[in-house]
Amino acid sequence: MPADNVVSTPPAHGHMRWGRFAMVAVPALAVAGILVGFTAEGAIASSISVSGQEFLVTATQFSATGFEQFGGSVANAQGQQPVIITAMHNAKIQNLCQSVSVGPVTLRLTAGSGSTPVSASNLIVDASSQTGSVATFHNITIGQDAGTLTEDPGTAGSSGGFGQQADTFVLNNLVQHTWLTTAGTFSLPGLSIGFGGSC
């Protein structure tokens, strides 16, 4: 074909809509930052180093099947921080709110405010404090050696340490200061994330 019959079409250039990109990317990055892969052994990898900031978690109701709790520590730039480690096989969270200071503003995440609560499997929370209005346990054992806990998800603390476990657990009006959360799965219906006030 003669060269003068060839029509050259310049490549099409896409246009980035930064507003839409941010709406998709920010929630994904926030959730990825909060959730860390659950290890095959059911324990938090010792190599995980947490940030120097705790985040606030609140919920109107937090319920779980397979409950274990014992003491431990997490490492950050300031050294080892003592934590309450709570492990749950399956959890339901109604009206979840998480907030953390990011410079001069507060990043706030909410989910599970409708008829469908947040759900999580193999959930492990490392918190410095945890309060609620009423806590109810079914088939609880208090004071068991933390190294011998047997409830799912099968985590365990240091041998000889204080631990407790229960078949089920319900806590109303949760307020928790948290260093780290990990889960096998985490479903967040009605997810909303943005800058605003604390929970």
Number of strands: 11
How much helical structure, as a percent, in the residues?
under 10%
Low-confidence stretches: 6-46
Structural class designation: mainly beta
Radius of gyration in whole Å, from Cα? Answer: 22 Å
Distance between the termini: 70 Å
Q: Main sheet?
A: 11 strands, mixed
Strand content: over 45%
Please sum up the structure shown.
With 199 residues, the chain is mainly beta.
Verbal overview:
By secondary structure, the chain is mainly beta. It has one domain. It has one helix and eleven strands, in the order αβββββββββββ. The chain has one helix at residues 18-34, and strands at 35-36, 55-76, 79-94, 96-102, 105-111, 118-131, 134-138, 141-145, 162-182, 185-187, 192-195. Strands 1, 2, 3, 4, 5, 6, 7, 8, 9, 10 and 11 form an eleven-stranded mixed sheet that branches.
Task: Give the SSE layout.
Blueprint: H1 18-34, E1 35-36, E2 55-76, E3 79-94, E4 96-102, E5 105-111, E6 118-131, E7 134-138, E8 141-145, E9 162-182, E10 185-187, E11 192-195
Parallel strand pairs: 1-9
Antiparallel strand pairs: 2-3, 2-4, 2-9, 3-6, 4-5, 5-11, 6-9, 6-10, 7-9, 8-9
Features:
1 helix; mainly beta; 199 residues
